[in-house]
């Protein structure tokens, strides 16, 4: 059973290991719990125990999707769907996912997608700086898969991909935000890029992505005790202020 | 009586346009007030669109169409 952190807890448990299907479902339940008023903030860190290529459901409408799904499944990368936006992202035991659900007031500076990305990304950069990686920032990584304006980057290369889902809270003007980050911690980024490029080829999309646009945490911190340091990231994410300055 | 389903003006801030990424209810279906009917994506952020009233759904903006805030994307006939 998934037991996300709440603001009232003072300890910060580390990574949970679960299948990609379980992890995606657990992230979705964070948003539901915030909407139902069980907490105004929930967080989860999880690492896949299996592999999948995860994408928004709209990709299933692509003409070549059924064949692509079969091809990826045969290669050991079954396709799964997620509730946040963006494009295909590989999930594997070499990836760590963090999901934060926060309740926001519409019309406040908090209810803004840019704020949501900073709400996740700024503490992430602070955590990296604490570990000695001073060059981390938020921005695009041209050539990366599922690129956006708010990746966590190291030296301009994508370390963490980010995406969001927003839901209106019933009976009031509040919104609930689920913001998610996926960070490759182990392995060669080229291997994950190749999976996405295989999907691109299978759906007959000419766009290809570049391994040089990605970086894994092990590239910059090869001796990092991940289990020991993830609680520090969770703490930063849970204790950041939820109202951005006007 | 017909009720429009619009992309709420306060759904996100700024002037960005979104894309209808999914209709979660089929054309002609009966929906209840508050049902989740569609998803609109802006910058890798998915926003959920709910039915403002009960009724039979008529879709006017299809999946993958670009929409601004305030755009009518469907109607509900009670």
Which helices and strands occur, and which strands form pairs?
The complex is a heterodimer of chains A (246) and B (78).
Chain A lengths: L15 E3 L1 H16 L5 E8 L3 E5 L8 H10 L4 E4 L6 E3 L3 E11 L7 H18 L5 E4 L11 E4 L2 E12 L5 E11 L4 H14 L14 H4 L5 H14 L7
Parallel strand pairs in A: 1-2, 3-4
Antiparallel strand pairs in A: 2-6, 3-5, 6-10, 7-8, 8-9, 9-10
Chain B lengths: L1 E5 L11 E6 L6 E2 L4 E7 L2 E6 L4 E5 L6 E2 L4 E6 L1
Antiparallel strand pairs in B: 1-8, 2-4, 2-7, 3-6, 4-5, 6-8
Radius of gyration of chain B: 12 Å
| Helix-strand category of chain A | alpha+beta
Report the sheet with the most strands of chain A, covering strand number, pairing sense and barrel closure.
7 strands, mixed
Low-confidence stretches of chain B: none
- In one word, what is the shape of chain B? globular
Identify the quaternary structure here: heterodimer
Q: What is the beta-strand fraction of chain A? A: 25-35%
Total discrete domains of chain B: 1
Structural class of chain B: mainly beta
- The helix tally of chain A amounts to 6
How many domain modules of chain A? 1
Strand order of the largest sheet of chain A: 1-2-6-10-9-8-7
Detailed description of the structure:
The complex is a heterodimer of chains A (246) and B (78). Chain A is an alpha+beta fold. Chain A is built from six helices and ten strands. The longest helix of chain A is centred in the middle third of the chain and has 18 residues, at 113-130. The relative contact order of chain A is 0.19. With 78 residues, chain B is mainly beta. Chain B has a single domain (2-77), classed as OB fold (Dihydrolipoamide Acetyltransferase, E2P) (Beta Barrel). Chain B has strands spanning 2-6, 18-23, 30-31, 36-42, 45-50, 55-59, 66-67, 72-77. The termini of chain B are close together. The mean pLDDT of chain B is 93. At the A-B interface, helix 3 and strand 9 of A face strand 5 of B. Strand 9 of chain A pairs parallel with strand 5 (45-50) of chain B, so a sheet runs across the interface.
């Amino acid at each position: 059973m998934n037991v996300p952190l709440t603001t009232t807890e003072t300890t910060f448990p580390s990574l949970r290991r679960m299948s990609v299907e379980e992890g995606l479902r657990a992230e979705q339940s964070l948003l539901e719990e915030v909407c139902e008023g069980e907490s105004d903030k929930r967080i989860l860190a999880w690492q896949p125990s299996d592999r999948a290529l995860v994408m928004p459901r709209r990709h299933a409408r692509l003409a070549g999707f059924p064949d692509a799904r079969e091809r990826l499944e045969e290669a050991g990368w079954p396709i799964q769907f997620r509730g946040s936006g963006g494009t295909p992202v590989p999930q594997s035991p070499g990836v760590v996912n963090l999901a934060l659900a926060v309740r926001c007031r519409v019309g406040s500076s908090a209810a803004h997608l840019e704020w949501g990305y900073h709400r996740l990304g700024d503490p992430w950069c602070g955590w990296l700086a604490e570990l000695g990686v001073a060059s981390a920032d938020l921005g695009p990584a041209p050539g990366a898969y599922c690129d956006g304006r708010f990746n966590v980057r190291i030296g301009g290369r994508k370390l963490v991909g980010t995406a969001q889902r927003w839901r209106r809270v019933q009976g009031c003007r509040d919104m609930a935000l689920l913001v998610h980050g996926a960070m490759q911690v182990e392995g060669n980024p080229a291997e994950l890029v190749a999976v996405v490029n295989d999907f691109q080829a299978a759906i007959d999309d000419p766009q290809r992505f570049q391994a040089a646009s990605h970086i894994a945490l092990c590239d910059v911190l090869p001796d990092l005790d991940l289990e020991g340091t993830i609680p520090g990231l969770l703490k930063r994410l849970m204790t950041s202020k939820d109202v951005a300055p006007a | 009586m017909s009720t429009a389903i619009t992309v709420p003006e306060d759904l996100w801030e700024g002037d960005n346009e979104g894309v209808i990424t999914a209709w979660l209810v089929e054309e002609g279906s009966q929906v209840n007030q508050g049902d989740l009917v569609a998803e609109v994506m802006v910058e890798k952020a998915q926003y959920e669109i709910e039915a403002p009233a009960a009724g039979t759904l008529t879709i006017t903006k299809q999946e993958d169409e670009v929409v601004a805030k305030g755009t009518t994307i469907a109607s509900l006939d009670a």
